[in-house]
Design a protein that fits this description.
Mean pLDDT: 96
Shape: globular
Helix content: 25-40%
Number of helices: 13
Distance between the termini: 23 Å
Number of strands: 21
Length: 403
């Protein structure tokens, strides 16, 4: 069922890979991006966060930013910092971190299968972020961000991947976060055919991360007539057995006009509260909250958590019982009063934001499981936005797909 194609990838020159590959565009602030590129002209953030080459205060989503992104990509190609393979390839992207290794197959996946729901989604997108990716793809005539797809591990795919893994990587680097990255082009026709045949038997692929990138690729495909290279999008396909999900936590700017005491009373209507607890939730069905310098544990009372693949998710319970009714956040996709913090930043980032006045309250969640993600997607349902945070992240600049 899963159709995948090899493609002529644009990738870092082997000796420059360590200075080119960069954090994903959406996990660093503008200030962090400017600091990264300050002494590194090769950083791919010049392409994915082009505002770093504009004066501070410039619109990162304005026409000038996308114009600079294209100019920077053209410069990377003309300088030979990025190269394009002469023949279509698959690529293996290996990441190792904290004793774990995940190996994904980088391939072009079908927009048609995405539109038909054979590549399953579990989240809605935020309109502004989706439009940004549409504009970025159109400006570059290329997809510069990998869509992170997961699949249920399979013996036939494992054998085909092992055949491809016998080849030496083109490059291997360790980034400053301690993650080892390696990229291996797969050129041999037999290996390519084996991978295509194995994935053809996969009943479904799941968008683990990259809902905005995949939705944007679909819109660009439609705008370009639905044919040619735009009918395929750049993805990394990873087996569920190798993946790790961290929490995706919440900050809320204010208490919607309530005093802390009144807000706590509202929370206590559905949750038992304990103060002075460990900031990290111990298990599913347990939340922690930072308010007024104190960490609280929240335990749902009987009848609060529904028996439903979506409504029973920790992120959904938080949204339905606290964020919407008590804090007035009806749509977290568009409400500017809520922000999301990846679990890799730890609970310290949450308490710091509240202590420094950037937020009034923070919520730490237990990670959503891949079993829950698959169950929701298989039921053709959607999770609340920002339900999962995968780590390690797929780096920007590892591969591009021209359209």
């Amino acid at each position: 069922m899963a159709r995948i194609l090899p493609f002529q990838g644009i990738r870092p020159r082997d000796d420059l890979a360590g200075s080119i590959i960069a954090p994903p565009y959406d996990v660093v602030s503008e200030a962090e991006a400017r600091a990264i590129v300050k002494d590194n002209p090769h950083s791919f953030l010049h392409v994915t966060r082009p505002e770093v080459d504009l004066p501070e205060g410039s619109d990162p989503h304005g026409p000038e930013a996308y114009k600079v992104a294209r100019a920077n990509l053209d410069r990377f190609l003309s300088e030979g910092w990025l190269i394009q393979d002469e023949a279509p390839c698959f690529y293996l992207y290996r990441q190792s971190w904290r004793g774990r290794t995940q190996i994904g197959l980088m391939a072009a996946c079908s927009i048609q299968e995405y539109d038909e729901g054979k590549i399953k989604k579990h989240e809605l997108t935020r309109p502004d972020k989706e439009q940004d990716r549409v504009d970025h793809i159109q400006a570059l005539d290329a997809q510069s961000g990998l869509v992170f797809l997961a699949y249920r591990d399979d013996d036939a795919i494992r054998r085909a991947m092992a055949q491809a893994e016998a080849q030496a990587p083109a490059w291997q680097v360790i980034t400053d976060d301690g993650v080892s990255h390696a990229l291996t082009p797969v050129r041999e026709p037999a290996a390519i055919e084996a991978l295509q045949s194995a994935f053809a038997e996969v009943p479904a692929l799941y968008v683990a991360d990259g809902h905005h990138r995949s939705a944007a690729a679909s819109r660009v495909c439609a705008a370009r007539g639905g044919s040619g290279r735009s009918a395929w999008f750049l993805a990394g396909l990873f087996p569920d057995s190798q993946l790790r999900i961290l929490a995706y936590n919440r900050l809320v700017r204010d208490l919607a006009g309530q005093t802390p005491g009144r807000f706590l009373a509202g929370v206590n209507a559905n949750f038992d509260l304990d103060a002075g607890v460990d900031p990290v939730p111990a298990a599913r069905g347990c939340w922690t909250m930072y308010l007024g310098g104190v960490w609280y544990e929240l335990r749902a009372r009987r009848g609060v958590v529904p028996d439903d693949p979506v409504g029973g998710l920790d992120v959904a319970v938080l949204q339905d019982r606290i964020l919407a009714p008590l804090l007035g956040i009806a749509d977290p996709r568009t409400d500017q009063r809520i922000s999301f913090v990846g679990g890799i930043r730890g609970h310290e980032a949450l308490s710091r934001a509240v202590d420094e006045g950037e937020a009034a309250v923070a919520f730490h969640l237990h990670p959503t499981g891949l079993d829950q993600l698959f169950a929701v997607a298989d039921a053709d349902r959607l999770m609340p936005p920002k339900s999962t945070w995968f780590e390690p992240k797929l780096r920007g600049g590892v591969l591009l797909h021209q359209i």
